[in-house]
Amino acid sequence: MSADVRSLIALCEQFAIDPPVDAIAPLVRGLINDTYRLEAGGRRYVLQRINGHVFPEPERIMANLARLARHPDRPESLGLRVPALIQARDGASFVRDDAGAVWRLMEFIPDTCNLSRLQNVHQAREVGRVLGRFHRWTAVLPSDDFAVTLPGYHDTPSYLERLRTLFDSAAATPSGPEYADGPDRNQPEITVLRSFIEARLDLAEALDRAVQVGRIAPRLTHGDPKLDNILFDHDGQCALALIDLDTVQPGLIQHDLGDCLRSCCNALGECETDPSKVRFDLALAKAILTGYAETTCDRLSSEDIDCLFDGIRVMPFELGLRFLTDHLQGDRYFKVDRPGRNLTKARIQFALVADIERREPEIRAVIETAFG
Ligand code: GN1
Ligand code: MG
């Protein structure tokens, strides 16, 4: 047994689970935290190390999860599951390792699977329903009770400003020492993306403006409802659970719906490499929004609905900005499997923005039908 496995087992033993630890193995999930599948005392769990570079105060995540756990109603009463936390033996909700990193243990929700892509509108409708149930479940909680786990998380104008500063400073000092670990900012591929971005400066502010004039208001959101974070039953028919609650914090419904559609309606997925193939699938979008509308009933105001298209357009734009920034900064934030991956991913997200723009009238019609 390696020293790494021994120290993982020692860590697991600090949680209130029945021994012995029978198996522990990495689970490839997500771009931020480190995740392991654990079997102990005949039960299965998910162990995670929270990325302390991304989340400045992981304790806030744990406090938010504890607040969710004090919800007066179980999510199951709405047909929703979220992973339950397993306490540490000392009663805390997490364990710290010698390096100060925060680890948590969750139940493994049995008989479920992830879909790598949606295969039909039935599954898409299920996605909309599960997100709708989550919003209904959390709507009764005061969003002020929840800490901001990731400051500036969906602050698109700030992401844009950071990237433009990077572009500008690169132009001034293209070979300065601060760029030693980053790639060339002036390569033609990046110049094309830069022009694409510069032509859309208004887009970054669309939702902020709607908040400032009081058209829409923040409420509790999931923050990351991508397809990977939705668990289906074993034959992929029913969406049962929403996982990865790290970014549950006050935000906009438009961010959640926009991000869900960004992830689910790009049927080729985030890791596609050819931007010319990227399409926004209208049939899937219609089914997701219909499933969402039928579970949330009248929770969305007409202004919320009016702003939905902006959410759908801005989320791939924002993620494109984030991937590109990370590429230029030397892949410090998102996990990558090869150099250049973040750049390819940025191109895919911007291609999705372009297709969404081409189909704006159809997408607006779909929104109207779903919520009409
Ligand atoms: C990250 O951790 P994960 O893989 O669930 C990111 C999201 C992105 C997503 C893109 C905290 O989510 O914002 O949309 O990658 N999470 C954080 O796949 O930055
Ligand atoms: Mg996440």
Mind explaining what this structure looks like?
The protein has 372 residues and is an alpha+beta fold. The protein folds into 2 domains: 3-110, 2-Layer Sandwich (Phosphorylase Kinase, domain 1), CATH 3.30.200; 121-370, Alpha-Beta Complex (Aminoglycoside 3'-phosphotransferase, Chain: A, domain 2). The chain is built from 12 helices and 11 strands. The protein has helices spanning 3-12, 58-69, 121-139, 156-172, 188-198, 206-212, 253-264, 282-296, 302-306, 308-328, 341-358, 360-371; strands spanning 21-26, 34-40, 43-49, 85-86, 95-96, 102-107, 112-113, 219-221, 230-233, 239-242, 249-251. Strands 1, 2, 3, 4, 5 and 6 form a 6-stranded antiparallel sheet that branches. A 3-stranded antiparallel sheet has the order 7-9-10. A two-stranded antiparallel ribbon has the order 8-11. It is globular, with a radius of gyration of 21 Å. The N and C termini lie far apart (60 Å). GO terms for molecular function: kinase activity.
Q: What is the tally of beta strands?
A: 11
As a percent range, the share of helical residues equals: 40-55%
Mean pLDDT: 94
- Report on the biggest sheet: 6 strands, antiparallel
CATH topology of the largest domain: Aminoglycoside 3'-phosphotransferase, Chain: A, domain 2
Assembly state: single chain
State the CATH architecture of the largest domain: Alpha-Beta Complex
Q: Bound small molecules, which ones?
A: 2-acetamido-2-deoxy-1-O-phosphono-alpha-D-glucopyranose, magnesium ion
Outline, from the CA principal axes?
globular
Span between termini = 60 Å
- Give the C-level CATH assignment of the largest domain: Alpha Beta
Strand content: 5-15%
Structural class category: alpha+beta
Q: Rg to the nearest angstrom? A: 21 Å
CATH homologous superfamily (4th level) name of the largest domain: Aminoglycoside phosphotransferase (APH), C-terminal lobe
Overall domain count? 2
Low-confidence stretches: 173-179
| Distinct helical segment count | 12
Order of helices and strands: HEEEHEEEEHHHHEEEEHHHHHH
GO molecular function: kinase activity
Domain Aminoglycoside phosphotransferase: 25-269
Pfam families: APH
Organism: Allochromatium tepidum
